[in-house]
Amino acid sequence: MRRRLGGAILTGVICTGLVVADQKKEIPKREPVAVEKATGAVEKTSVAPVNRRLIVYYLHGTARCFTCKKFESLTKKVMDESFGEEIKKGRMEYRVINVDKKENGHYVQDYQLYSKSVVLSDVLDGKQTRWKNLDHIWEKVRDEDAYKKYIRDQVASYLKN
After folding, report:
1. Total domains, the chain
2. Of the four, 12, 89, 147, 152, which is 20 to 30 A from 79 by CA?
């Protein structure tokens, strides 16, 4: 185990690179809705904030090796296969970001990145409320099933909270 982890860390050092979002989407604000009162009168009221979205980032640098590309493809596969409906409904997004681009450099500090990473970001009303770096991707990437299960379980767990 120690030898595999050392290899993963060495690979991470060799492949150092971080991700930044190529596209940014603003979460639309919900408009007040008409609610009929018991008296028959109609009143506009605000709806409780339902503008929650989970963004799954794959953050990488410009220089990308086979393993770096595998992170991206496996993560996308999990997102499409396991969370396609949530993505269609706008509850989730998957973004691939090159953190070496000037406009994306802030992700390195924002998420304390030191290598390629998959980061979960919970956004409520356009503001990030919490985030998590899935830092075991390097240990799991050699076993496709274990990697996909790890991503799927982490995302599902994050959605529940």
Report:
1. 1
2. 12
Query: Which helix (H) or strand (E) segment is 118 a member of?
Result: strand 117-124
With 70 as the cut, is the pLDDT of residue 29 above it? no
**20 closest CA partner among 66, 65, 55, 70:** 55
Please, is 44 exposed, middle or buried when counting C-beta atoms within 10 Å of its C-beta (0-12, 13-18, 19+)?
A: exposed
Please state the pTM of the whole predicted model.
0.70
To the nearest whole number, what is the mean pLDDT of the chain?
A: 78
Which phi-psi region, left, alpha or beta, contains residue 113 (left: φ > 0; alpha: ψ -120 to 50)?
beta
- Band of pLDDT at residue 50, cut at 50, 70 and 90: low
Q: Is 25 left (phi over 0), alpha (psi -120 to 50) or beta?
A: beta
